[in-house]
Every structure is written in structure tokens, then in C-alpha cells.
Write a structure and sequence with these properties.
By secondary structure, the chain is α/β, with parallel strands linked by helices. It has 5 helices and 7 strands; from the N terminus they run βββαβαβαβαβα. It is globular and about 30 Å long.
């Protein structure tokens, strides 16, 4: 998509990147809604999932370009969810960013072992979330 410059008929155009389709998986309604608001303000299309099982159904239906996944969730934790998503050849290229209130080295390493590309500590800011999308979209293209 291109937008014309400030003057009518201007030869200058600006490229505008279309928003990413982002899946946010978190059992906390507050975190899901915060992430949704921040990402939509950044121009992204957002799909929400309450847990790993919900996410596995939605990842196939919505084909996200990037996934934020909480670690501590009931039934199917974030590590298991990430590993299952990454085992599917259709989604091996999709960046997964783990979300956790813990900032431990072990948690980050375990996330990498199951295929995540990054780790974001909660609570996150709008800037951190949007920067993560920008960095990982550029890295994936």
C-alpha cells in the first residue's frame, strides 16, 4: 500500500507496511486485552487464545505471522504449546515469543529449546510489544 505525499499530485510516496496477524496466547484476560489494545494501536490484526488448546485450534484457522505465548497456563503450558506449533512444518517459520512474569535464564533457555525466538517479561509496555513484532517480522522476511 502506498500513500501520496502531503501535496496533491506529489511525486513522493511513502510505503506503509500492512499490519501483521498476531496470535496472543495467555490465560490472563488482562494480559490478553492489554496486548490486543497495544497491537491494534500499532495497526496489527489480533487473534486471542485463552490457553494452549484454544491456540492450537486458532493457529490453523488464522495462520498468524507471529505468536506471543504465555509460559504458565493450565492444561497445556507455553513450552508444550510452542513445541507442538513448531513441529508442524506449516508453522516452523512463524516466530514465537514467550511471555512470562519470570526473568530467569533457565526459562529463556527452555523456551529456545522448544523453538521460541524471543522472550518478553510481563508486564510489558506497548513499545516493547510493538518493537518485538517489528524485529521479528523483519527477521522473518
Amino acid at each position: 500500500m502506498e500513500i501520496l505525499g502531503p501535496e496533491a499530485g506529489a511525486a513522493e510516496t511513502f510505503a506503509v507496511a500492512a499490519g501483521a496477524k498476531v496470535l496472543v496466547i495467555d490465560d490472563s484476560n488482562t494480559i490478553r486485552r492489554s496486548a490486543e489494545i497495544f497491537l491494534r494501536q500499532g495497526g496489527h490484526d489480533v487473534v486471542l487464545a485463552e490457553d494452549g488448546f484454544d491456540a492450537l485450534a486458532k493457529v490453523n484457522d488464522h495462520l498468524p505471522e507471529l505468536i506471543f505465548c504465555d509460559i504458565l497456563m493450565p492444561r497445556l503450558d507455553g513450552y508444550q504449546t510452542c513445541a507442538i506449533i513448531k513441529r508442524n512444518p506449516k508453522f516452523t517459520h512463524v516466530p514465537v515469543i514467550m511471555l512470562s512474569s519470570k526473568d530467569g535464564l533457565f526459562d529463556k533457555a527452555r523456551g529456545r529449546m522448544v523453538g521460541s525466538q524471543d522472550y518478553l517479561t510481563k508486564p510489558f509496555t506497548k513499545e516493547q510489544l510493538l518493537r518485538a513484532v517489528d524485529v521479528h517480522r523483519r527477521g522473518a522476511s
